[in-house]
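Give me the fold.
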Amino acid sequence: MDLIAVTDGRHSDKELLSIIIQIKDHVDFVHIREKTKPAGGLFALLHALIESGVPREKIVVNDRLDLALLHKVHGVHLPGLGLPVRAIREQFPHLKIGRSVHSFAEAELAEKEGADYMLYGHIYETHSKKGRMPRGLTEMSLITQSINLPIYAIGGVTPERVNELRQKNLAGIAVMSGIFASENPGEAAKRYFAACKEGHDDSTL
């Protein structure tokens, strides 16, 4: 199983750079999801990450197609109400395009439009979605059985829950607060990475 670390929008650029450098060897992908940062700040952050040795192939940019293209990053992730997958696929066929989905219908549409992978959640209760009921595993299981794309579970995933998710035919997991809200993000990433790689070595995104 793959491990995607998703930034939580709660750190300064300097802190975020430091954390990602700490975890880069213990995650398969780093999803830069910083909705409140201005374009200039994100541009500088991506530049600093690449200059610091974070491989471009590990970087996924949330929503900002322009910044992904400017930095020759091949991964772009689209929120549920983001840009249409099909339009980006037609113009930029080289990109790996992900889509966040929250239902079977959304997953079917994302597959039809040409997404390369999906994030589905939130699976368990999580601090990132306080007060909102988790979607659980039932619909996710239907999606993984019916959709021929890599599916990643997100939301409240802990290292202890990875084994349960492994049985659901997932490509991997995406983790936000479990890594970025940890007192020691590097060690947290190592724990998740070890749980994901138990018996699995291939990256699929």
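The two ends are 10 Å apart (CA to CA).
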